[in-house]
Design goal:
The chain has about 100 residues and is mostly helical. It folds into two domains: about 35 residues, no CATH class; about 60 residues, DNA polymerase, domain 1, CATH 1.10.150. The chain is globular and about 60 Å long. About 10% of the residues are buried.
Length: about 100
């Protein structure tokens, strides 16, 4: 209890002096919120750019380019499972993407 009170007083004093903002008090929470926010958007693998695809866990620059090359050569993906036809994308990687990708 003393620690909480002491920390609250330090934060309050710093805020009064203008050298501290509440956002600085919890940088880990803000970083986690940003990560969740990044993945909140569903990515259409039939229209996504390399940059959009690389936001998916496990998809780097090369795999993103492979997805786009496959799409350009073979046409649009008919369902999300078709992404496993891209060389280097198997069931494990697909499971990480499921729920974050769409073809509609």
């Amino acid at each position: 209890m003393k620690k909480v009170f002491g920390m609250t007083m330090v934060i309050a004093l710093a805020m009064i002096l203008g050298s501290f903002t509440p956002a600085q008090a919890a940088p880990k929470a803000n970083k986690k919120a940003a990560t969740v926010q990044q993945h909140a958007q569903i990515i259409n693998i039939n229209r996504a750019t390399v940059d959009q695809l690389t936001t998916l866990k496990g998809i780097g620059q090369k795999k993103a380019q492979a997805i786009i090359a496959f799409r350009e050569k073979n046409g649009k993906f008919k369902n999300i499972e078709d992404v496993m036809l891209v060389k280097g994308i198997g069931q494990k990687m697909f499971d990480k993407m499921r729920g974050l990708i769409t073809v509609k």
